[in-house]
Design a protein that fits this description.
Distance between the termini: 34 Å
Radius of gyration: 19 Å
Shape: globular
Structural class: mainly alpha
Helix content: 55-70%
Order of helices and strands: HHHHEEHH
Strand order of the largest sheet: 1-2
Largest sheet: 2 strands, antiparallel
Strand content: 5-15%
Number of helices: 6
Number of strands: 2
């Protein structure tokens, strides 16, 4: 292995690997906390999104776009949520060709727990990083995300 190989060395990791490593750790932390309430990260995000958008019709495509996941990934998550009794699909009131997603009472009851988990992890970030570091990350990460996303689309 080449000593200066930026992809494979553990010294001077590339930005891509640092972000990837952080993402894996964050996802593991979230999933460990969410498994106690029987949800995956995507399912918890769906509950939060549906709760926060209760006054509008939300379709599967909205969720796929919002969370940057594929149709098959979202389909699996939503079918699992239906089987658990967390959501139902109802005909759209605006366009009967589509089905909107609606939280059941059981799904609504998980909202505070989901918010609590994400809030807890955010609070953990705030114990590790200074206010300035958080502000800096809040500026550069969306910039990186938007610019790199443009390269995909």
């Amino acid at each position: 292995m080449e000593k200066n190989n930026i992809v494979l060395t553990t010294e001077n990791l590339s930005v891509s690997r640092l972000i990837h490593n952080l993402d894996k750790i964050e996802l593991s932390l979230l999933n460990n906390k969410l498994k106690d309430i029987g949800l995956s990260n995507i399912q918890a995000l769906v509950i939060i999104y549906l709760s926060d958008n209760i006054n509008q019709e939300v379709f599967q495509k909205n969720l796929e776009k919002e969370f940057g996941v594929t149709n098959p990934t979202m389909t699996v998550s939503l079918k699992s949520m239906q089987a658990k009794g967390l959501i139902v699909k109802e005909k759209s009131k605006v366009d009967g060709r589509y089905y909107r997603l609606v939280l059941t009472t059981k799904g609504k009851n998980l909202y505070p727990k989901c918010i609590s988990i994400y809030t807890e992890i955010d609070a953990l970030h705030r114990t590790i990083l200074s206010k300035e570091e958080i502000e800096f990350l809040s500026q550069i990460l969306p910039k990186l995300t938007a610019t790199l996303k443009e390269r995909i689309d």
